[in-house]
């Protein structure tokens, strides 16, 4: 529709907030009936530029389950949100959060994943969290599966590689939809679903020591099962709680061509298509044609149930969310590969990068917002974006993190530009408003938060919460609805 004017600021109902995951903040991994999850059997890495999720084997899982400590598995302790949730949510409210994105741990509610009846103590914990959010008028945005599932389902049926996992997951989703009807306006199904192409951490399927072909076969089959489960969850929610909305979640990996050479441009286009394939299925309701060739070229055959394609077509998601941390270059002529948040590619000489080698590209966020809006015409939601850094606590108990403020300011500015371009953007939940355990390396020293948590990589510390300089800055951003970024 032609208009003479265009939006020049964030909409009045823009959802400002922050995002965390159960396995990175909750702790309390073995109390109140909770089962062990896939996230809690992955050991911390010794190299902060090496992600250890692919090192999991059946033997390592069994050894982890037998280990009753958290020494090698920091995600088991998190930052004890389980016992500090009231204090933490009060701090979020002080910043002015309109929304808080968190995940409900499947294994806290169904410890083995496939029980007939849920664990009431697990449900009661999320009752308390939701009540606390309501107290401060903070809307919940709940992720149903954020890089964790009951490890029992891995040992029993190799996680999402088995079609049986669909029914187990949808028993879980139906349970929480009914329990929290009218309390949760926004849900997400699978966090960064596309990272299932990297294996275990997202699919719960062990595929180490297999050929590349066999790994791809297992991973894409597991992802198909997730697509179906997501569509069924959408059907369930629309019936149980018609006012609530459900979205997909993608790790957005915008890729640039390494040169104007048409071969490089085409290669970059293919990489972007392979990234957006997942949202194509979940938002458009069908497998895109370009993947037919990819599957054929790689000898991959997706086994589908008789009604699968009809279910996908009938129950697409209501909105699209994604994480954005960096961009990469495809077919770069020279330079070492960069690796960040499951994205790999050539180094871009025009960009700075974090201490973990993640390249920083605020303008890329505007680019990807425009591309995704043009492609899908569904509301978009940036549900992860942030800077992991080694924050230093001064002698007088302060954290001066101007570098984080600068990073967030530049990305928020580009979101505002995208809105002016015409993008329909629902909200922004920056990643890690409180320091948490790193997903990729299980470090505590990789900090994202506006709130410092006194805990080191060995789990030592008082767990005291301390406001960083960025706390007051984000408070100002929210109060001004994104106008005051100084």
From TrEMBL:
SUPFAM superfamilies: (Trans)glycosidases (SSF51445). One of its GO terms (molecular function) is beta-glucosidase activity. The keyword Cell cycle does not apply. It comes from the Bacteria. GO terms for biological process: carbohydrate catabolic process. One of its GO terms (cellular component) is cytosol. The active site is at residue 384. InterPro entries: GH, GH_1_N_CS, Glyco_hydro_1, Glyco_hydro_1_AS. PROSITE patterns: GLYCOSYL_HYDROL_F1_1, GLYCOSYL_HYDROL_F1_2. Keywords: Glycosidase, Hydrolase. It holds the Pfam family Glyco_hydro_1. The keyword Hydrolase applies. Belongs to the glycosyl hydrolase 1 family. This is 6-phospho-beta-glucosidase.
């Amino acid at each position: 529709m032609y208009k003479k004017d265009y939006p020049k600021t964030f909409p009045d109902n823009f959802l400002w907030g922050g995002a965390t995951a159960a396995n990175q903040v909750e702790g309390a991994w073995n109390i109140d009936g909770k089962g062990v999850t896939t996230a809690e059997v992955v050991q911390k890495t010794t190299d902060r530029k090496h992600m250890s999720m692919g090192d999991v084997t059946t033997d390592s899982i069994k050894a982890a389950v037998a280990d009753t400590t958290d020494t090698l598995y920091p995600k088991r302790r998190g930052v004890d949100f389980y016992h500090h949730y009231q204090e933490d949510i009060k701090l979020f409210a002080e910043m002015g959060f309109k929304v808080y994105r968190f995940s409900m741990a499947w294994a806290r509610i169904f410890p083995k994943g496939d029980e007939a009846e849920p664990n009431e103590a697990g449900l009661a914990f999320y009752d308390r969290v939701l009540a606390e959010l309501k107290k401060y008028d903070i809307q919940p945005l709940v992720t149903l599966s954020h890089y964790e599932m009951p490890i029992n389902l891995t040992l029993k049926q190799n996680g999402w590689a088995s079609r049986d996992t669909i029914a187990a997951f949808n028993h879980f989703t139906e349970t929480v939809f009914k329990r929290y009807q009218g309390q949760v306006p926004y849900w997400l199904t699978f966090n960064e679903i596309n990272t299932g192409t990297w294996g275990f951490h997202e699919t719960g399927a062990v595929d180490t020591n297999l050929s590349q072909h066999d790994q791809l076969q297992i991973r894409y089959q597991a992802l198909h099962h997730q697509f179906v489960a997501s569509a069924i969850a959408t059907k369930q929610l629309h019936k149980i709680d018609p006012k609530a909305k459900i979205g997909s979640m993608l790790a957005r990996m915008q890729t640039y061509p390494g040169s104007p050479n048409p071969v490089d441009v085409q290669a970059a286009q293919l990489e972007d298509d392979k990234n957006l394939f997942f949202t194509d299925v979940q938002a458009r309701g069908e497998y895109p044609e370009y993947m037919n060739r990819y599957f054929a070229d790689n000898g991959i055959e997706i086994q589908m149930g008789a009604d699968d394609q009809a279910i996908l077509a009938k129950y697409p998601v209501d909105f699209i969310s994604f994480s954005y941390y960096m961009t990469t270059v495809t077919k770069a002529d020279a330079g070492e590969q960069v690796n960040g948040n499951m994205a790999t590619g050539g180094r871009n000489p025009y960009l700075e990068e974090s201490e973990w080698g993640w390249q920083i590209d605020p303008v890329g966020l505007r680019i990807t917002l425009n591309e995704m809006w043009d492609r899908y015409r569904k509301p978009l939601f940036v549900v992860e974006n942030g800077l992991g850094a080694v924050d230093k606590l001064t002698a007088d108990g302060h954290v001066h993190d101007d570098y984080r403020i600068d990073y967030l300011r530049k990305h928020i500015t580009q979101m505002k530009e995208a809105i002016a371009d015409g993008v329909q953007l629902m909200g922004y939940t920056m990643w890690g408003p409180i320091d948490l355990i790193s997903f990729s390396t299980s470090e505590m020293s990789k900090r994202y938060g506006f709130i410092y948590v006194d805990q080191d990589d060995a789990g030592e510390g008082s767990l005291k919460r301390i406001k960083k300089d960025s706390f007051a800055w984000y408070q100002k951003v929210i109060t001004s609805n994104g106008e005051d970024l100084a």
